[in-house]
Backbone:
């Protein structure tokens, strides 16, 4: 991402994340990674990393809320935990108030934790059922040697009141509270050590709508009062739109778009963001329904697609330069290729398939020859050959598959920068960090020299 | 209008616990017409799920349906009458337990639950479970049933259905599992499908796909749906008519457009106001204050009065029954709120009362009834 620069250069940013990676291997355990084969030597070992967070860079300014949104499994929570160094990063750095957390350990790291707190999704399981809420709120203060016993109790009561609970509930157990109230206890506990930065991992998604609004309002009030900075993770775009100043959209371990809230919601530049926005049902029966839908499943983070990771589901994959098809014909080819991959039809007759997938626009030239070949394979029931041919000659030839996109765009609403990882934006980009040579997914948006 | 497919009248389901009687569903009435998607909306604890299990007579001890009538296509699913001693007993035409099992559940009325993992058996293949269901309920032989099962899987958009037929539930993603359940529900081409929060556990993109698919399938098969949800956006998108539930009662009932643009009950408007919007930036959310009271001890009068911003003295005393408030020639629109003239209990003259919602700023900041300051 082109916000990359020397870490010291942006004194305003409270937190700077640079090219952060977190891979999980499967090598722990006796039989981990062992696979059985039909042929000699029958047993093989492979190690395959799950690339949960793969080269993520962003800044969070003091006092702002950065929303992080994405589907389940895209790496949001792993990112949050890695940022706080609850998980050891595989690579990359996290600068918090100028210090690299990734290089800290032991006591200095522990002391640093005082300034960074976290709130979890499930308010039930993040509170010890055998502790009263007072001691729960006091515990972080104890761990960091804040105040004496009396002072801690007074502060805990004060905080309970601040988050909208009755200070007299100091001696109650968590089970006596409703979900929304428990989340408030979590808030009070996070606030007890006076942190600067709070990571909120889906803090309201387990709550009812009406309670959700109460908690969101409280969080905003607290942010103002205590000058807090939030990293707010949610899968619900409406909540993100309400609470965030800037929004980052994550897909399969990478940030695909990052911009000011208004800019991102009103002027999304990445097809994935658009698809997400189109997918949300709007609480208005006159809104006219949705336009387009994503098809297919999120690919596995063990072996993510090359280039742009969204390309296997993207409705706007770019045509390879080798062909000269009309846009409609190219769309049909893409759709047909995906249908073959999903085995979405039983039909093997080439004419019938042509009617079904290439009714209004057929490719011409080389593309047509390839298509005929693929249809021939299907007619002989060789689905795998057809799939390989179509994938290798069409999908894998696209620029989307051969280069990692990373573009910096001008922002139409708001004055901040707008980052979008989509090759469709290459002409409007004011800066880019595309490494054309690296085809194996080694290039990361974060590794750019764009600002230099 | 023709006869409704399903008609529920004054249904009451109660749970008899040691602490007292929980009136989970307390006198609700609604109809489902043919080919219609009817929404049942409310917060958790409103009694939505108890209402739907009552329709299928799936309420277990300590719960019991204690009153009301449920008619489905002219058959009595539930009905009581007084015998000679004045005791209530099931009416003769009420379907027996066996008839319910053999004719109604699965075949005529299917249900889709929120958690697809819990509804599928983890030790049998997905295809096998679907095949068995079709075999038993439609009387096909195993091969035909298998072919039908694969067709249904394709119909609901499972990729490569032939090979996925032999996979186990854990090999499917959440969205895929929910599709399998929808396939299962549709397999017997029932007249009514009850969908109990089927998309709540799913991602927005997957939720979108499923909603789209349901709309398509509904057009194709003409199935009616009861769609249980807490999400007003989903309601706006797929429902034709909506019932809003609060604490065991239906407090507003209207066509979807009327509900959003001509809201009659303060609870419904509060619910709509408390939602952040995806399509525009809302500066300040207006949450509903307080939490839903326990159904074991509901507030007197109007059950919402303790959280209602428009509550007056009379709301504490008078329990409003839903009344039709629609103008002549308009679609039915009922609401249970005495602020409307149709009730005529002196709302306008009654003095406003202090509730959590009207008690000023401090009350707005706490859930404990304004004790904070």
Residues:
């Amino acid at each position: 991402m082109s916000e990359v620069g020397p870490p010291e250069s942006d004194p305003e940013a409270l937190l700077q994340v640079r090219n952060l990676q977190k891979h999980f291997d499967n090598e722990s355990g006796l039989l981990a990674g062992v696979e059985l084969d039909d042929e000699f030597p029958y047993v093989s070992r492979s190690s395959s990393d799950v690339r949960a967070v793969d080269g993520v860079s962003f800044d969070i300014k003091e006092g702002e809320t950065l929303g992080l949104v994405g589907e389940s499994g895209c790496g949001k929570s792993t990112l949050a935990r890695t940022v706080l160094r609850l998980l050891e990063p595989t690579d990359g750095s996290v600068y918090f108030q100028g210090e690299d957390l990734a290089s800290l350990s032991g006591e200095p790291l522990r002391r640093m934790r005082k300034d960074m707190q976290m709130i979890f999704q499930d308010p039930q399981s993040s509170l010890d059922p055998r502790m009263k809420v007072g001691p729960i709120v006091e515990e972080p203060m104890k761990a960091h040697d804040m105040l004496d016993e009396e002072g801690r109790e007074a502060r805990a009561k004060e905080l309970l009141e601040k988050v909208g609970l009755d200070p007299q509930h100091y001696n109650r157990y968590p089970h006596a509270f409703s979900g929304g109230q428990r989340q408030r206890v979590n808030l009070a506990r996070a606030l007890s050590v006076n942190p600067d930065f709070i990571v909120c991992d889906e803090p309201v998604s387990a709550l009812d709508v009406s309670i959700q609004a109460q908690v969101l309002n409280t969080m905003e009030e607290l942010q103002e009062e205590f000058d807090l900075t939030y990293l707010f993770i949610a899968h619900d775009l409406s909540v993100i739109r309400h609470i965030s100043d800037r929004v980052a959209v994550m897909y399969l371990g990478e940030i695909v778009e990052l911009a000011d809230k208004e800019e991102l919601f009103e002027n999304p530049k990445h097809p994935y963001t658009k698809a997400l926005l189109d997918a949300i049902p709007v609480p208005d029966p006159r809104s006219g329904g949705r336009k387009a839908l994503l098809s297919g499943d999120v690919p596995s983070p063990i072996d993510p697609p090359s280039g742009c990771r969204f390309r296997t589901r993207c409705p706007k994959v770019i045509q390879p330069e080798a062909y000269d098809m009309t846009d409609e014909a190219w769309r049909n080819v893409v759709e047909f290729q995906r249908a073959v991959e999903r085995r979405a039809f039983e039909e093997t007759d080439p004419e019938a398939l042509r009617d079904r997938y290439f009714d209004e626009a057929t490719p011409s030239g080389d593309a047509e020859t390839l298509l005929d070949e693929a249809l021939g394979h299907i007619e002989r029931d060789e689905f795998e050959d057809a799939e390989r041919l179509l994938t290798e000659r069409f999908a894998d030839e696209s620029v989307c598959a051969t280069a990692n996109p990373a573009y910096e765009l001008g922002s139409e609403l708001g004055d901040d920068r707008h980052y979008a990882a989509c090759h469709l934006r290459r002409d409007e980009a004011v800066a880019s960090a595309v490494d054309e040579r690296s085809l194996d997914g080694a290039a990361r948006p974060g590794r750019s020299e764009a600002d230099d | 209008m023709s006869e409704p497919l399903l008609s529920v009248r004054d249904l009451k389901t109660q749970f008899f616990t040691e602490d007292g009687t929980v009136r989970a569903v307390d006198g609700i009435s609604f109809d489902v017409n043919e080919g219609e998607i009817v929404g049942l909306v409310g917060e958790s604890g409103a009694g939505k799920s108890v209402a739907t299990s009552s329709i299928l007579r799936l309420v277990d001890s300590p719960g019991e349906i204690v009153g009301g009538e449920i008619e489905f296509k002219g058959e009595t699913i539930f009905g009581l009458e007084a015998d000679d001693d004045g005791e209530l007993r099931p009416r003769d035409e009420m379907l027996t337990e066996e008839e319910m099992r053999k004719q109604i559940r699965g075949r005529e009325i299917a249900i889709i639950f929120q958690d697809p993992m819990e509804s599928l058996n983890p030790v049998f293949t997905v295809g096998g479970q679907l095949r068995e269901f079709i075999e038993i309920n439609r009387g096909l032989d195993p091969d035909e049933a298998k072919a039908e099962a694969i067709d249904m899987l394709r119909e609901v958009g499972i990729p490569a259905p032939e090979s996925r037929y032999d996979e186990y539930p854990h090999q499917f993603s959440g969205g895929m599992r929910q599709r399998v359940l929808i396939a299962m529900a549709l397999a017997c081409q029932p007249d009514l499908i009850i969908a109990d929060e089927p998309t709540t556990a799913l991602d927005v993109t997957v939720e979108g796909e499923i909603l789209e698919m349901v709309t398509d399938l509904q057009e194709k098969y003409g199935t009616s749906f009861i769609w249980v949800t807490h999400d007003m956006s989903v309601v706006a998108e797929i429902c034709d008519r909506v019932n809003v539930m609060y604490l065991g009662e239906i407090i507003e009932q209207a066509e979807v457009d009327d509900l959003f643009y001509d809201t009659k009950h303060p609870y419904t408007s509060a619910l709509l106001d408390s939602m952040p919007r995806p399509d525009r930036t809302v500066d300040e959310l207006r949450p509903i204050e307080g939490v839903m009271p326990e159904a074991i001890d509901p507030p007197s009068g109007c059950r919402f009065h303790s959280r209602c911003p428009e509550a007056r003295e009379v709301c504490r005393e008078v329990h409003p029954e839903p009344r039709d408030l629609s103008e002549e020639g308009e679609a039915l629109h009922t609401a249970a709120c005495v602020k409307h003239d149709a009730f005529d209990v002196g709302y306008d003259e009654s003095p406003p009362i202090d509730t959590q919602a009207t008690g000023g700023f401090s009350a707005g900041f706490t859930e404990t009834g304004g004790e904070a300051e």
Notes: Chain B touches chain A through 57 residues (CB under 8 Å). Residues 3 and 369 of chain B are 47 Å apart (CA to CA). Confidence is low (pLDDT under 50) at residues 359-373 of chain B.
